[in-house]
Amino acid sequence: MLIDPWITNPTNKNGEKDLASLEKVHLILLTHGHGDHIGNSVKIARSTGARLVTTPELMKALVLYSYYPESQTSDALTGSFGGEIELLDGEVRVLFVPAVHGGSMEIAEGSVAPRSLVYAGMPSGFVIKLKNGPSIYHTGDTDLFNDMALLGPVDLMLVCIGDKFTMGPGRAARAVRLVKPKMAVPHHYGSWPLLTGTPEQFKTELEQLGLTGIMRHMNTGETLTWK
């Protein structure tokens, strides 16, 4: 199961090799239609048969404008905010939750109107519950909003910190305080100079809120085993 799989992003020196090595992917979860989140989804879907899990609007837009294989989409794989779906014979449950961000998508080269933007639904996050495993809140790209307090507590929170296009380290730390995860892993930073938020700043902001020992800084290519 992959979430917003931009495997060949600028921070991953082994991106092409890692992308080629993906042989078994059942599901691709997409939070919204921006290019750095759709990433390599279509290529992965074509090579692995991965099915798409996202909102109805984005699912239709991806098929129409980015050539995601329509046969790997269905009503059973989609939902909207507050809706929860069961996947992989009950091994995974996915709750669609809001995010405060943009909802456009770039049209793929060779499609109906190249270099244009199309509406691709509202951006989302996911609360993912794994059978006999952890609960995971992936924020997607978002600002801080008070209703985050209704999503937790969870085991693991994957929280955007980059600033400019999402909440920065300070607001991200306040989001963690609302959600109350056991562990917070920062994401969406460092891929471009415009994203100025850093894990070090995030850790400092957490500590100022009394949230010590909660952040896990993961490097590209690193694996976390949940126990």
What ranges have pLDDT less than 50 throughout 5 or more consecutive residues?
Answer: none
Order of H and E elements? EHEHHEHEEEEEEEHEH
Number of DSSP strand runs: 11
> How many angstroms separate the termini?
19 Å
> Major sheet, described briefly?
6 strands, mixed
Mean pLDDT: 95
Question: Please, how many helices?
Answer: 6
| Oligomer classification | single chain
The radius of gyration computed from the alpha-carbon positions, rounded to a whole number of angstroms, is 17 Å
Please bin the fraction of helical residues: 10-25%
In terms of DSSP E residues, the strand content is 15-25%
* Category by helix and strand content: alpha/beta
Shape: globular
Keywords:
alpha/beta, six-stranded mixed sheet, three-stranded parallel sheet, about 230 residues
Structure notes:
With 227 residues, the chain is α/β, with parallel strands linked by helices. Helices cover 22% and strands 20% of the residues. The chain is built from 6 helices and 11 strands. The chain has helices at 15-20, 35-38, 41-48, 56-65, 169-179, 199-208; strands at 2-3, 27-29, 51-53, 84-87, 92-98, 104-106, 117-119, 124-130, 135-138, 156-160, 183-187. A 6-stranded mixed β-sheet has the order 4-5-8-9-10-11, covered by helices on one side. Strand 1, helix 1 and strand 2 form a beta-alpha-beta unit. The longest helix has 11 residues, at 169-179. The two termini are 19 Å apart. The mean pLDDT is 95.
